[in-house]
What does this fold into?
Amino acid sequence: MGGMRFVGNVWRSDFNYTGSFFRNAHSSYDYQVPYGLYSVAGAYTPPLTQGSFAYEPENDYHRLGATFGRRLPAWNGDFSVNLALTTMRQNDKLLAPMDCQGQFGQALAPPFMYDCANWNTTDALSRKRAGLAINNQKVDARLVLMPNDDVTWRNTARYLREDYSGSYWAYNPLTDQYGYIAENGAQGSVVPGEMGVWDRGPNASVLTRIRNLPLDKETREVSTGADFRSSNKNTLSASYTYTAIERAHREVATTHDNLLKFGWNNRALEWLTFRANYSYLDRSGSRYYYDPYEFTFSSSLPGFVEPAGGLSPHTVSNLRKYDIASRTQQKLDLMATFILPHDMTVYTSVRGDRNRYDAQIGRQRFDTYAGSVQWEWQPNPNTTASAWYGLDRSTLVFANVNDATGSDPALGGPTYPDANRWWMDDAQRNHYAGLNFTRRLGRATLDLAWNWTYSRGTTSYRMNSPGALTTPANAALASGSYPVMVYRVNSVTAGLSLPLNKRMRLRLFDTYERGNLSDWHYFGFEDTLVYDHRVYTDGGPSSYNVNLVGMLFEVAL
It folds into this structure.
């Protein structure tokens, strides 16, 4: 990291560079598999007793930035432009697709048995290094004008381009096959045809991922807003922001955001400061395309043979992914600060966030409401105390449809019939509170703290018919809701800090924590962890008590 800055009476400029270089001591790690494989077809399958995973790839990051600013004589103005070029590069050596010996797969016809020698070498890769990068270009322009002492007018324009560089094809030149070995060969050794590879022979109808997915994006944003001081004790603000984002290979090519914000600060009373903020967001976009990823699968290759009955759809065409779906959002924040006698202060806040999504399938509504109050007291420079309490409630409404067989992606068709639709309402309520006390005792400082968290989650559901369930025969057991999920934690901490000199400090502490957890996902797991050929190693969360005694030695450099 480095830079150079110039500041004059009219012009100012800044040039800087930031770099990051990540390296791993090891490129991968091995693991052992103690369990045997089971073919659902009853065929012989060679054992796979080991596998390997790659660590995070080594990568480089470079950023060149420049800022130019100028004071304007008119309206006490200020104009600035910020430019930045960024590149993130990843060119790590790639590992062989797997590290088995002998053969893997299933002894079935057409041949589903594979030679490890064709897959346990880097010669099985289309290239030996990743060769991927993301290159960004950013331009930010800002103009601030002050026509008088009571009005400030702010304007900004922003452009950001994110380009993915490099294409990786999952192709094995030794076998002339595309794709990858799924689950280190275990998946294809259990289910015929699911090894994860495509070829022009017996696997011509296998649908598998064959290349990387570039996600280029371009953002253009403009905003204007003003602050108006109507009196010495009242300030009003308003702003408008328009954002257009173009995305490559996403369900919506272009989204348009229109955002309005309003604010009010009031200091009419000496003992009270009040702030209110409200915003309204409307997001729209171009036509929604439910499957923009087809070019990354083997179905896009010449020679792909569509199976009888057609390919199963990528998903139902009426699904709307919430991050790019059309929606409206309203947010309200109210905050007040009270100055009380005897060196006490109270902070209060109320917040609401309301989201509505234009979706038949997917997220339809997400609302959050919260409030908090905090009390602080400092009777003298050596003693401080505080207490707080907060609560929030979030509600998520989600809709989906269970698929049947077929190749029709439309909702209400044979693949996604209306009878298989279901809805879920998830409500989460959280309470949290705490106390803090700090007291200087000569050169030492004593600190005491208590924290409490209580979360309660309820999930209810409804469906059009038993066909909405993975196992329709269980419809008689459906009550319309799941058991309540509860998470309750109490913790108490006592600590003593002692400065040893100007640069060193010693802290002794003791923390005791007790948690009570109830998660219906794991109900019945105490009976057995073995179901047919599946063995679960996670017994789920449980209540606990823990006490931690420690010593910290701090050195200021």
